[in-house]
Design goal:
With 460 residues, the protein is an all-alpha fold. It folds into 2 domains: 3-152, no CATH class; 226-417, MetI-like fold (Orthogonal Bundle), CATH 1.10.3720.10. Helices cover 75% and strands 1% of the residues. A two-stranded antiparallel ribbon has the order 1-2. The N and C termini lie far apart (66 Å).
Length: 460
């Protein structure tokens, strides 16, 4: 017996008990009014049979893997394996693949001899766990069927409590995931700050994370000043991209909601939102092959000899085009949600269409517009592919948009690419960059929410 067969058996038992409970409740309903509908009685039985048995299966699955490994290693073939742990794990992995008929033979000859042992141990422990779960399901089913239920049995209350618990669990998963992300960044960042002073990281003007293997090599200590990285992120994502995205997105939303005919809107809006579905690597190709050479030629024609083919301006322009749909969609929805009575009242007072838009619609839709801008900024700050392909990897502290710069996300990718050891300052710097970027984004969001809240209170 496998755990999959046990799951099917538990499901059949639960469905059978649910059907019996439904029939019993239907008969009771014929003699008078029930507190809960028969469907709730069936769901109550189904949940109480399924949940305990499935919890046993879920707890047994990871235990089974460890028990199988112990059983295989304690066999005569397992005791003959090498003492080197990594080699032993490789042989066990190959033995599992042979036992499951995923490969015909492994690189190590010992894996073929271990395959029957693995299959035997898996069948034995899967049978133990599956039978235990099925017995629990049968026991719960027996208790439910033997228990006499009257018309006042509150099956609906029990089902709603289960549903409430499920919703709470879903919320807690999101909360614990966020907490886990923050803690993982925090603990690894603290390890980094034990190796590199936090003042050098936050206020340093030079970024060169390469650390030599020997002390006599050049740059053996590395340089971890993060200001060039954060300035590159701000220059590309928060300045250039926003200069492109906010005016174009906002004006597109105003046109689509206030000026465009319904037929024109039905065509233009979907076409505009297609931009949000284009893969970022495609934007990177467009930036590197089309926009970047044009920007370089523009810079040279303006007399800027340092104009690079990988520039902040090229990446920022394409990134701004990419996030236009985020600004436009949020602003469109916010403007369309403004009550028509406000617009009609403005027209009745003699205001023109443009005055109504500037003085009535946009102030009323400001929270949604700010939300769209925040979403766009977050999207731009976290973008990687466009910057890798169009802006380059040089950590330059410059205000010239025609020069090459890099961003925090690009450096995080560079630091964690390939086989890395997580005990050096070079690798741990990626976590410190992620933590600071997270805190900056959080502060910006809190400031924006506070501004929107104050404005809303004054407007109301």
């Amino acid at each position: 017996m496998t755990l999959g067969i046990a799951f099917i058996g538990i499901l059949l038992i639960a469905l059978a008990v649910g059907g019996i409970s439904y029939s019993q409740a239907s008969r009771l309903r014929g003699g008078g009014r029930l507190h809960s509908l028969p469907a709730y009685h069936a769901l109550h039985a189904l949940i109480w049979v399924l949940v305990p048995a499935l919890l046993v299966l879920a707890a047994w699955a990871p235990m089974q893997s460890r028990l199988v490994d112990q059983a295989v290693l304690s066999s005569p073939e397992g005791q003959a394996l090498p003492d080197f742990e990594m080699q032993r794990d490789t042989i066990l992995s190959e033995a599992r693949q042979i036992a499951h008929q995923e490969i015909a033979a492994g690189f190590n000859p010992e894996s073929t001899a271990l395959a029957p042992r693995v299959l035997e141990a898996e069948q034995r422990y899967a049978g133990i766990g599956g039978i235990a779960a099925i017995l629990i399901a049968l026991g719960t089913a027996g208790i439910l069927l033997l228990r006499r239920r009257g018309r006042e049995f509150r099956a609906r209350t029990s089902v709603e409590l289960w549903m409430k618990g499920l919703l709470i669990a879903a919320s807690l998963i999101a909360i614990f995931t966020t907490l886990g992300i923050v803690l993982s960044l925090l603990f690894e960042s603290l390890r980094f700050f034990r190796l590199v002073p936090i003042s050098d990281f936050l206020f340093g003007l030079s970024w060169s994370p390469q650390v030599a293997i020997r002390a006599d090599q050049a740059g053996s200590s590395g340089a971890f000043g993060s200001i060039p990285l954060f300035w590159g992120t701000i220059l590309i994502g928060a300045i250039i991209a926003m200069i492109v995205a906010i005016p174009l997105g906002l004006m597109s939303a105003i046109y689509l909601t206030q000026y465009a005919a319904p037929r024109v809107r039905s065509v233009i809006k979907p076409l505009l939102e297609i931009l949000a579905g284009v893969p970022t690597v495609v934007y990177g190709y467009f930036a590197a092959l089309t926009v970047a050479p044009w920007v370089r030629q523009l810079g040279i024609s303006l007399g800027i000899e340092s104009a690079s083919s990988e520039s902040a301006l090229a990446a920022g322009l394409v990134m701004g085009i990419m996030i236009i749909p985020f600004v436009s969609s949020m602003a469109d929805d916010s403007i369309a949600a403004v009550p028509s009575a406000m617009r009609d009242g403005s027209f009745a007072l003699g205001a023109t269409r443009s005055e109504t838009i500037r003085k009535v619609l946009l102030p009323a839709a400001l929270p949604g517009v700010v939300g769209g801008v925040l979403l766009a900024v977050s999207r731009a700050i976290g973008e990687t592919m466009i910057v890798v392909m169009a802006a380059g990897l040089s950590a330059n502290l410059t205000a010239n948009p025609f020069e090459s710069v890099t961003t925090v996300t690009v450096q995080i990718v560079q630091l964690l690419t390939g086989d890395q050891e997580f005990d050096s300052a070079k690798t741990l710097a990626a976590f410190a960059l992620g933590l600071v970027l997270f805190l900056i984004t959080l502060v910006l969001n809190l400031i924006a929410l506070n501004v929107v809240r104050r404005y809303r209170e004054a407007y109301e």
